[in-house]
User: Which sequence fits this backbone?
């Protein structure tokens, strides 16, 4: 039973446009959510997080939105750049453990 | 520079052999974690440790063992009992191990069983 789902395995976006990556979760006890970026053969790099008491968090070109009623979060990247091409994982936490989604591969086209 | 190091980057093992993956951090983090990544899958938790001399099983602990004798170090042993050990292994740490503390990852070790 997958508690955190990223239903889009891949996404292609033109450079300069907005990238929107989605993540759904099933456990209402999750209260902390994160996005990581990962290049092949490297460890994930932390991007941005959000607590369940908020519905939006911004950091430069990255914004995470949380819709608790829908159990849905999304990562917006504006404007998208070719260096953003990577696999993006969402993660959720309600204990000391994170549950990760399966990742979305983003390709930003120049 | 503070960070998490994992060694080696690539590791090859013959079937039936145990192998130990190293993870060291100088971030003064209390909590450390081991994950496994397989193609097309998310990261799955193998073991975690919130404090020295204590650790708990994650979701896929069978065939693995760990120790936490020092705050900086959390080695993972992949035993011969692990049926499908070929994977990318990632170590992470966080401080002070609270629920909403961000985990930071090392560069990973790719283990291949020949």
Assistant:
């Amino acid at each position: 039973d997958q508690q955190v789902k990223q239903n889009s395995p891949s996404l292609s976006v033109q450079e300069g446009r907005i990238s929107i990556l989605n993540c759904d979760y099933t456990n209402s006890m999750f209260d902390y959510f994160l996005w990581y970026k990962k290049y092949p053969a490297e460890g994930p790099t932390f991007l941005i997080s959000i607590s369940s008491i908020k519905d939006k968090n911004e950091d430069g070109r990255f914004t995470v939105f949380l819709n608790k009623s829908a159990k849905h979060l999304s990562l917006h990247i504006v404007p998208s750049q070719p260096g953003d091409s990577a696999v993006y994982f969402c993660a959720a936490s309600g204990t000391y453990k994170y549950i990760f989604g399966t990742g979305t591969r983003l390709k930003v086209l120049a | 520079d503070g960070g998490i190091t994992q060694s080696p980057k690539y590791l090859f093992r013959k079937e039936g052999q145990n192998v130990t993956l190293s993870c060291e951090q100088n971030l003064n983090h209390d909590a450390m974690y081991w994950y496994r990544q397989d193609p097309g899958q998310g990261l799955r938790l193998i073991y975690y440790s919130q404090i020295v001399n204590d650790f708990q099983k994650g979701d896929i602990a069978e065939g693995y063992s760990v120790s936490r004798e020092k705050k900086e170090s959390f080695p993972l042993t992949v035993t011969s009992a692990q049926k499908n050990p070929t994977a990318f292994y990632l170590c992470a740490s966080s401080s002070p191990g609270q629920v909403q503390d961000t985990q930071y990852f090392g560069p990973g070790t790719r283990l291949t069983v020949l």
Observations:
- Chain B touches chain A at residues 4, 6, 31, 35, 40-45, 48, 50, 58, 88, 90, 92, 97, 99-100, 102-108, 110 (CB under 8 Å).
